[in-house]
Structure formats: C-alpha cells, structure tokens
Design goal:
CATH architecture of the largest domain: 3-Layer(aba) Sandwich
Keywords: ATP-binding, Cell membrane, Membrane, Nucleotide-binding, Transport
Radius of gyration: 19 Å
GO molecular function, one term: ATP binding
Number of strands: 10
Number of helices: 10
Organism: Roseateles amylovorans
Protein name: ABC transporter ATP-binding protein
Domain ABC transporter: 16-268
Distance between the termini: 26 Å
C-alpha cells in the first residue's frame, strides 16, 4: 500500500514551511529548533513516542501556541506576524482545519448539525439572520446543507444524519469529527491521532477516508498517528520527533531504515 500509484506524481510545491521552531513551557523545552515542510497534496506524518512534542507542533501550526523562536509560513505568508488572538482565525481563513485527539463534538446535536457547524466560516449572514432563518439566510442555509449532505454521503454515515452524536459508536463519532473539519473546505487538514481508540476495522475505514480526501479533494494532510503500520502505508513523507528534537525526516522507507528512529521507538539492543 506504500506509494499508492497516481498520488506521488500529484505532489506540488511547498505549501506549509516550518522553520526552526522552539517552544518552552517554563523550564520545559517542548520543541527544539524543528524544521520541515509540507508539500501540496501530500500526506505528511509526524510521529514519535509519547511526550515527543507532536501535539505541541500541531498546536504551533494552527496557532494555539506561540513558539518563542522560528516561523511558520503558509503559502509564503508568515503566520507569526498576527497576534495570537487573530492567528487561528487567519489560519482557518487561509484553509487550515483540524481534528482533535479528544473529540469536541456537540454530543446532544445531530450528525448533520455538527457537520453544519463547520460551515460557519463560509456563511455570510450574521447570527441573527441565521437564527431567524429568513430571506437570504434561509437560502444560504439550504446551499450549505446540500454541501453537508454530500459529505455525509462521502463518509457513509447517511443512516445517522439525524442521530444525536453522543449516541453513536466511537468510530462513527470520529467520522463526524472528520466531516466537520472537511466542511470548512480546508486546503490543509491537520489530523491529531484520528485512529486512536479504534478497532482494526474502524482503522481500515478511516485510512480509506483519509486517502480518499487526499485523492478526490486534493487536500494536503498533516497526520499524527501512533499506529506505525498505518503511518508507513499511507504517508508520503514522515518527520520523527523525540523529546522535542527532530531525529528523522524522509520517506517511510528512509525513516524505517534509520537506526536513531529504531532506538527511539524500541530502545537500545533492538
């Protein structure tokens, strides 16, 4: 499954450029001088043991954390020039969406309404118009609902469109979370352990959806995942972190062959 035919040829220029990022919390160094890039249309994995700094890196990319050093450029634009207050919105406006390891869905709302929440950035009418569902706001809602229905079909969750999310199995909740992120029409999709807690069948389904999002929508994906079989099968390139340092960067085969990466995962003597 490595290097799926027809995908690698579509990979384009650098879309996201992470340069010399360092991040500390008090005296604790979470990231130390990390640099890597993400190319358009690729699946780029970030891996490492627990505490390696993977989620911290993702939080820097989408503006949750402000690194003390370095810069993050999206399509050549330095995101660090924005205040922390505006950075996350700017990233969203520029086409960056994210899912989280710990689901943050509206458990009492339906699948359809949860995914509709991801369309908020594209809705032009103010909240009062949307609440009243009158005139232009009603027409706008119909248009956005059609797009959400297409995502529901794509993710194969049609039977659950009106079901409260809290009543769904965990694997289906993960699909809803993916659908809400896709509703933003992202150019870059950040996935924080999208397969954590899933059984084998659920992981296979999620792998298929991730590959389909990358292939059919042309979405660039940055992925954190602990399942090395999954990472090595679906990723174009992999960056490896260990205690906040970068210890590997390359294709799955190159990373697999690195003695330092093997030691970080398996320990001395293996």
């Amino acid at each position: 499954m490595t290097d799926p035919p027809g995908r690698r040829a579509e990979i384009g220029d650098v879309l996201l450029d992470v340069r010399n990022i360092s991040l500390s919390f008090g005296g604790v160094k979470a990231l130390s001088d990390i640099s890597f890039d993400v190319r358009e249309h690729e699946i780029r994995a970030i891996i490492g043991p627990n505490g390696a700094g993977k989620s911290s890196m993702l939080n820097c990319i989408n503006g949750v954390y402000q690194p003390q050093q370095g810069e993050i450029r999206l399509r050549g634009e330095d995101m660090g020039r924005f205040s922390p207050r505006h950075r996350q919105r700017r990233m969203a406006e520029r086409g960056v969406a994210r899912t989280f390891q710990n689901l943050a869905l509206f458990k009492g709302m339906s699948v359809l309404d949860n995914i509709m929440a991801g369309r908020g950035l594209h809705m032009k009418r103010n909240l009062l118009w949307q609440a009243l569902r009158l005139g232009p706001a009603l027409h706008e809602e119909i248009e956005h609902r059609e797009q959400v229905e297409r995502l529901i079909d794509f993710l194969e969750i049609q039977p659950y469109r009106h079901t409260p999310v809290g009543g769904l199995p965990y694997g289906l909740q993960k699909r809803v979370d993916l659908g809400r992120a896709l509703a933003m029409e992202p150019r870059v999709l950040l996935l924080d352990e999208p397969m954590a807690g899933m059984n084998v069948e659920e992981k296979q389904d999620m792998c298929r959806f991730i590959l389909d999002v990358n292939d059919e929508f042309g979405t660039t994906i940055v992925l954190i995942e602990h399942d090395m079989g999954v990472v090595m099968d679906i990723s174009d390139r992999v960056v490896v972190l260990d205690y906040g340092r970068k210890i590997g960067d390359g294709t799955p085969d190159e990373v697999r062959a690195s003695e330092e990466v093997v030691r970080a995962y398996l320990g001395p003597g293996h």
